[in-house]
């Protein structure tokens, strides 16, 4: 008997023995099924364009490379439709605040929850040193993976610079933000650094791109050179009404954004697609 035939017969006998004993390589029928991590991690390119919409039904018609949408509220079918159209999907969630309308809000402990965020009803700062908070964030990243997101945008990652009600520091913020980046990368999810302007230079090596709000209005855009000079895109949103109503103001804004190699949008603060101006040429 040649070796090939012998090995084939042995393999068949082994399969019959496993079947007879009730063995199987398949998971139990009731076991949770999470989509496997992609074999290669996507990272946005410096010239990628974007759209940002977190509320209401997503307008999928914009000719951009990247969509940034809400992790919890966006159906998987919308994510899949965007990807079928050749777009990458970044999923937003708050990593530094508890929002009382989220489905996992009850998972936070009383000790995790601090002061209210100014002007954002139902939202409170979190103690990002908490092991329980980090467990919840890992679960949110698992949700992003299971829904097929290409990347994530963890928000409110600058609690140390705000009146959070906790003794957070620059050092604890750096450690927490690096935790988020590492956990995202373990799942092969690209990760954005949201605002946290003071720590851009220290965190550029950990994050794949930046999402900024109103650096033009607050004169903070210079700090983002640390990202663009390293080939990492900056997705910027401006909310000032003058940019929407004054063509000259918008032209000045866009000229500055293009000079910086930013991808700047003029959007409503509600991020509901109520208006949109793009500085892309």
Automatic annotation (TrEMBL):
The keyword Signal applies. Keywords: Signal. SUPFAM superfamilies: (Trans)glycosidases. Residues 1-26 form the signal peptide. InterPro entries: Aldolase_TIM (IPR013785), GH (IPR017853), GH114_TIM-barrel (IPR004352). Residues 49-273 form the Glycoside-hydrolase family GH114 TIM-barrel domain. It comes from the Bacteria. PANTHER family: ALPHA-1,4 POLYGALACTOSAMINIDASE, PUTATIVE (AFU_ORTHOLOGUE AFUA_3G07890)-RELATED (PTHR35273), ALPHA-GALACTOSIDASE (PTHR35273:SF2). This is Glycoside-hydrolase family GH114 TIM-barrel domain-containing protein. It comes from Collimonas pratensis.
